[in-house]
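[SOLVED] Need 3D model of a two-part complex

Original post:
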Amino acid sequence: MLDRLIPYVPSVLFVFAAIAAWLDVQRPGRGARGAFVALTILGLLARIATIVEPGLCPVSRTGSSLALIALFLALHVAITAHQSVPVRALAMLVLIALLDAASQLVGGPRAPFHPPPRERALAEIHGGVLLLAYAAFALAAVYSLLYLVLYRLMKTKRLGVWFERMPSLSQLEGRSHWALDAGFALLCAGLLLGFYTFAMFRGGVPWSDPKFVVAMLTWALFAAEMVCRRLLRWRGIRVMWMPMAGALVLVVLYAVGGSHPFWSPR
Amino acid sequence: MNGVVVVGISHKTASVELRERFALDSAAREQLARAVREALGVDEVLVLSTCNRTEVYAGALPSRERELEGGAIRELLLRLRPETGADGAAALFELRGLDAVEHAFEVACGLDSMVLGESQILAQLRQAFDEAAAREAIGPAFQELFSSAFRVAKRAHTETAISHGAASIGSVAVELAAKVFDDLASRTVLLLGAGDTGETIARALAERHVGKLRIAGRTVERSSRLAAQFQAEAMELSAALERFGDADIVLTAAAPPAGQYLLDLARVRRGLAARRGDELLLVDVGVPRNVEPAVKDLPDVFLYDLDDLHAVADATLERRQREAAKVKKFIAAAAEAFAAWWRTDLGMAPFLRLFHGHFERVRRRELERALSRLPAEHRELVERFSRSLVDKLLQAPTIKLRNGLGESAAARDLLRELFDLAREESGEEPK
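Solution:
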C-alpha cells in the first residue's frame, strides 16, 4: 500500500506548494512565498528521486515524460519565484501538480529499449529536447490563460484582489511569446533529430504512426502562430488563444501516446 | 505617560486654505522645533508638515516627572502664522499621553489620511524623523515611539489590504494603465478636452512618467496652456481625433454637442485597425459621455467611464474600511507595548542605573582591596567572579522592579533607604 502511495508524494508537495502560493495571493508577506518555494524545491527533489531509474531513460515512458515536463516547470517556478507575481506562480503550480499526478496515473509500459548505443543516445536527446519544448509550450499556455483571465476581468470591470495580484497584459503577452519562441525552436530541433534518427536506423518516414501525425499537427499550429505574430504582426487577444489551442493538441499527443510509447522500438 | 504631546491641524480639523497657511518649509520647521525645545524645555521634538497636516510632537523623559502641555506649542504655531487668526486657533488640536502615541501610529498607518490607507504619509513621517534626528531632537523616547510607528505601519501594509487597490479616480486610471501596459515610459497618452477631472488624471499619469503626453482642446491656445504645465504636446482637437489610434491611453473630457460622441464606434474601429491587436485604454470622464458605449464590446479596447472609475474607487475604500479595523487592533497592541516600555524600560532606567551603580561601586572598591593582596595570575578570575556574583544577586530584584514593583514609589523609597541610595544621588561615595 505504502509503495503505491510513495510516488504521489511529490504531487502532494506540489499541491501544498500551490496552497501556499494561493495564501501568498490572498495575504502576501507572511512567509507564504518562502513556503511555496521550499515546497516546490522539495517536490522537485522528490520527483527526481523517483523518476531516475537505473538504466532507463526518463523519456521512455509516457508517465515519466509527463513528470519530466512538470519538473522543468517546477524548476522554472523555483528559479523565478523571487520576481514572480503570486498569481503566475499559483497558476504554474496548479498545472505542475496536475501534470505530476497525471504522470503517476498514466504510468505507461516500461519499454524494453535496448538499441545500439548511438541510436539510444540520439533517441534520448530527441526525447529530452522535445520534452523541453513541451514544457515551454505549457509555460506559454499558462501565461496565455492568465492573459485571458486578466483581459476578462478588465472587460467586465471586476478589479478586485485577483486583478491587483496579476502582472500586466503586456508582460504576460511578452512572456508567453518568449516561451513560444523558445518552444518552437526546440520543437524544430527535436523533430529534425527524430527524422534523422529514424531515417538512419529504421529507414524512411513513419507516416502511418499516429504520434508522428499529431506531432506534425502541433508543429503546423505553432508555425501558424509564429507567422501571425512575426510576419502579420498580430498582437493581443487575437493571438493569445493560440498557445491554449497548442496545449490542447499536446494533450491529444499524449493521449495517443498509448499506442506509441515514448521511443519504443518498432 | 504624560511626557508626549502633539499639537497640530489636519484635514479633519481645517479647510485646505487654512492648511496651506500652516504649511511649513524646511527653515520654518527648524525654527519652530528650536522654539518648542526652548519654550517647553524638552529635548525631543518632531515637526511633520504635509499638504494634509502640520503637527508638532514634543516628548519629555519620564525621569523629569512632569506633564507636558501643548499650550506653548499652540502659541508658537499661531505666532508663526498670525494671519490664520481665530480660525487657526480653533482648528488646532492637542493630544497627550497615550492618545498622542496612538495618533502617531494612526498617522503612520494612513488611518488618519484623507485617502484612507495611503502609504505616502509613511515616507513623509520618516523624512520628518530623519530631519529631527539631524537636529539631534530625537532621544530614547521618540526613537522608540517612531520606530514602533514605522513597525506597526509596515505590519499594516504587509499583513492587511489597507493600502491595496486604487482609491481615487486618478489612481484607478493609473492602475488600469499599468495593468494594460507594462512600461508606461514607452506609451503615448492623449487627453481630449481639458476639464478638471481630465486634468487630475493627466497629472496622475504624468507623475508616472508616461512616454508622450498630448493634449488637444477646441483651440491650440487653450490646450497649450495645459500642455505647458505637463511638458506635453498641444494639438488641435480635429487633428488629434484623426490620429487618436497612435495613442495607447486616451482620456476624454470634452463637451461634444448633445447626442454626438467625440469617439464613435466607426472612428474607434478605424483607429484600432492600425493597432493590429495592441490594446487601447479609453478613459471617458466627460459628461455627457464622449465615447459611444458600444465601443466597450470591441476587442482590445478597455473603456472606463466616470461611473466605472468611481465604482472602483468606492469599492477600494469600502475594502480599506474593513481592513482599518484590523489595523486598529495592531495599533492598540503597539500602543500598549509602548506604554509598558515607557513605564518600565524608560521610566525605570534612571532608578535602575542608580541601583546597579551602587552595587558596581561597592564591587569595584572591594575588588581593588582584594586584588592588591592577590598574586597576578588570580586577578582575572576574581574579577570575573565578583562581576558574576553581583549580576546574579541583582537579577531577581531587577526583574521584579521592571515588572511593576518599580512603579511603586514606596518600594523605590525603601530601596533608597536600605542601600543609602539618596547619598549616592547627591553625588557622595557609598559607605
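Edit: The radius of gyration of chain A is 19 Å.
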